[in-house]
# Entry
Amino acid sequence: MTIEDMLSGFARATLMTSATPTERLDRLSDQLGLDLWIKRDDLTGLSFGGNKTRQLEFYLGEAQQQKADTILITGAVQSNFVRSAAAAAAKLGMDAVLQLEERVPGMGADYYRSGNVLLAGLLGAEHLHYPTGEDEIGADNALHERADQLKAEGRKPYVIHLGIDHPPLGALGYVAAAAELMTQISDFEAAVVPSGSGSTHGGFLAGLRLAGQSAPVYGICVRRDQHQQHVRMQQVLGRLADMLGFDPVLVMDDIQTWDGALAPGYGQIGPATRNALTLMARSEGIFLDPVYSAKTFAGLLGLLEQGVLQQGQKVILLHTGGQPALFGYQDELLSP
Ligand SMILES: *Cc1c(COP(=O)(O)O)cnc(C)c1O
# Structure
């Protein structure tokens, strides 16, 4: 059974119109002594692109199947998922309710006004505010209260669930992404991806193994330390194996999480992140984002420094987008 056959059992909305490019980074390859390639999922198309477009194809597919007229989602103030979900809702003719959580302490005015916040405002969605950021259950409950109100008004709400207690539908998008990558380049020796909710990391790892690619996939922690993230990845992959009907043994021993670039914490820029962001921009003219993709590249550099990645290896870096957040982090990026 092909990967597309496995995915065909799931409702899917079309949000991507073409495959994203995979390019060799010539100057960085020379500088780092690697054969370094980048999968440009910052170019997924919808509303400044990013990895959430692929994930939303499956959430919005289910929403359409249920004849929903309003989608609800919760995330950090500068969440790319929230902005992408509002754009997907607009494209498919649905309303959107966006709940923004206070997840990053000590941020300036741009964080609350520019970047993804500005874009979500232009998309015209209803905004809610949630006062804390590490309360997945509380944030979900608040969203459900709003969904219940909408139901009482005769609307058909669909909540996009990102908590670990729900099936990781978004991971299916990264199973598909891995299959797409394999049609572009298949002989790489390692891949480096971000690991947040785990949908990207989990889907990508499972997709590569289902396609017969056994290269290590390093999940760079962007939110939790590597032990917590490892446990989360076991949960994500267990659920994904159930959903797709493959044996979890195929992937469980292959979970690799690395948190050497996480400091000082979720959504906060440390020296390694800043260095990675400017190195990519100044060597290749490609922008990374401060919350995820610069940390992921910082992770690649850290793994190289530690000898986990070795000189001459053919390595894939997954660029998951997120650049609108650059404009929410102006003070942090410009201060030395
Ligand atoms: C959400 C996000 C991630 C993390 O992806 P998960 O699937 O949640 O692990 C990485 N990069 C960007 C730019 C994102 O917006």
Summary: The mean pLDDT is 96. Residues 50-52, 80-81, 194-201, 289, 292-293, 320-322 surround pyridoxal-5'-phosphate (CB under 6 Å). DSSP finds 14 helices and ten strands in the chain. The chain has two domains: 3-51+167-334, 66-160.
